[in-house]
Amino acid sequence: MRRLAAAPRGDEAGATKRFVLIGSEAHIALDAAKILMGDPKAELAAVLVDATGGGRLTRYAEQHDVPVHPAERIRTDGEQLCRALACDWLINAYGTVIVPRSVLRLLPGRALNVHPGPLPEYGGLHMNQWALRNGETRFGATIHLMEEQIDAGAMVRQDWFDIAPSDTGLTLFNRTQRAAIGLLRDVLGDILAGRALRPAPQDLTRLRVYRHAEALDGRIDWRWSARQIVDFVRAGNYRPFTSPTYTAYIEKAGVRLEILKAHLGAPAAAPCGTVVELCPDGPRVACGEGSVVLARAEADQVAFGAADWRRWLGTLPQGRLPGRDADL
Question: Which domains are present in the chain?
């Protein structure tokens, strides 16, 4: 773990601190609420819930008589709300609302964002998927000060871990969330013990902010290397849940096959997208470099077996699968 915060400061030790928590349906927001509710030196003044869903967080807050507001309020009248709540700290735990300048100026150095990725290289959204697509072998989570520029604030704490070869978009998201919860527990412990946070500035020349719209195209590009296609497929796999962005697919004549697992195949000397052979677990397809075996596919969430593949592949022109390239 990379510890970027922690020198003791006694002037606030023992003082009760009031928190406003922004969160969503992710486990970390609920865990943050439980940490704050369980410490006598903390008061959870209010919970602001994303419109996209925060059922568990909302129920927990209501059960403990904590006021619940739409997260959008931090954008429309956040300064007035924080003043009315006598807020000392603002914690954003995977909420997606943009906190305005007026609120950040009200809470200088006391507005923290829990970021599910290692900064500065992985800012923005869906970083777990991008890390897989980019072939990373390590990933992590970060807690940083909020500034007007997205994910650009100084880092308070950061943790890294190895990406497993079996990780999918979903499993890497869950592992990142567990790392983030550990970081948040430590940082809140420092705050409530009166220990000063000592944030470290980011190297913003390395900051990369990924956008939602950049991650929506699930079509496979057979010109990619076999390794890139395998990583693209696993990054989009959120089963049994729905991916927040894309699931890799191929589509022909109105039939969409979602590809949930692929592995490297033997070298293939054939045009990109050509089905070289039908293996027991799926077709082997030539790529820009090497080949991939499409080892798990579904049509309308029903498994696509060997017999289905035979029928489907028999209608392909030149035995080539459609992809991002219009010529394939």
Answer: 2-210 (3.40.50.12230), 216-319 (3.10.25.10)
